[in-house]
From TrEMBL:
ATP binds at residues 90-100. PROSITE patterns: GHMP_KINASES_ATP. It is found in: Cytoplasm. It comes from Mucilaginibacter mallensis. This is Homoserine kinase.
Length: 298
């Protein structure tokens, strides 16, 4: 038997919530087609949409490696599997590309084996995939890719993941400046010590953003979405970051920031039309754009 599973792109950090906040978008996303085979072990027969950049070797691919961890945990290393991976977003785009693939793979094996336990139980395996992809097992892409909507990682040890509500009238524009920013490198350049004064500013903003989501207060969401810790460093890797912010905010965006570790940027708006216009304008501003769409928080 076989299954096809789609998992969505995600915006991690959501500006001020480094490693603790993320949300899923309804497109783009990746698809995994998985089949049970008679020969024990995992094979990857096909990968599309990756410009030949991803390994077919199951020991080196994040999808197969995380599925292998799952199989070990349920004591099913005896089974045979074949995986096809269809990438529908660029690698290293800041849209949770590896997470979408990994989550689709894990959901596929869960479905094939008839495992009806809570999908959140797949998270530790998905985080193993992240660790392999960029050297750190953060959950702010994999958790929203798996659970949908807005997600807070309240704690990593022990893992405590909380789904958050969001206002119905919140729209998101995303554009991808066509430069490669590997997450591994984007994590290496950030400071690992911060001042208490800056921590106070940052956690005030995170609390403000989460409150705004619960209160459906888009003004509060907007004024809470500033990041004084990570964005000042990472924005240097993104072409015309501050100019793009000026354009988006000037057109009525509620907030603007880096998606994940970049280079994609996103803006929240109060209506779909503004999201579309901002996307178009930013696409015009950047000369080479691969994707750009108006995306609802799903
Ligand atoms: N929280 C992670 C980071 C997300 O910012 O490095 C990577 O997509």
């Amino acid at each position: 038997s076989s299954v096809a599973v789609f998992a969505p792109a995600t915006v991690a950090n959501v500006v001020c919530g480094f490693d603790v906040l993320g949300f899923a978008v309804n497109e783009p996303g990746d698809e995994v087609i998985m089949r049970l085979t008679n020969k024990p072990g995992i094979t990857i027969s096909k990968i599309t949409g990756d410009d030949g950049r991803l390994p077919l070797d199951p020991a080196k691919n994040t999808v197969s490696v995380s599925v292998q961890h799952y199989l070990k945990s349920v004591d099913r290393l005896d089974i045979g599997l074949d995986i096809e991976l269809h990438k529908k977003m660029p690698i290293g785009s800041g849209l949770g590309s590896s997470s979408a693939s990994t989550v689709a793979g894990l959901y596929a094996i869960k479905t094939l084996l008839g495992d009806e336990s809570d999908p959140a139980k797949l998270l530790p395996f998905a985080m193993k995939g992240e660790e392999m992809a960029c050297g750190h097992g953060h959950a702010d892409n994999v958790a929203p890719a798996l659970l949908g909507g807005f997600v807070l990682i309240r704690s990593y040890e022990p893992l405590d993941v909380v789904r958050l509500p969001h206002p119905a009238g919140l729209y998101c524009a995303i554009v991808f400046p066509d430069v490669d920013v590997p997450t591994r490198e984007a994590r290496q350049i950030i400071r690992n010590k911060i001042f208490m004064k800056d921590a106070v500013t940052q956690w005030g903003n995170i609390a403000g953003l989460v409150s705004g989501l619960f209160m459906q207060d888009i003004d509060l969401i907007g004024r809470s979405m500033t990041d004084i810790l990570v964005e000042p460093v990472r924005s240097m890797l993104i072409p015309d970051f501050y100019k793009m912010r000026e354009i988006a905010m000037g057109m009525g965006a509620v907030s603007f920031g880096i998606s994940g570790s970049g280079p994609s940027v996103f803006a929240f708006t109060r209506d779909e039309e503004t999201a579309k216009l901002i996307t178009q304008k930013l696409q015009q501003h950047l000369t080479s754009i691969k994707i750009g769409s108006n995306i609802y928080v799903s």
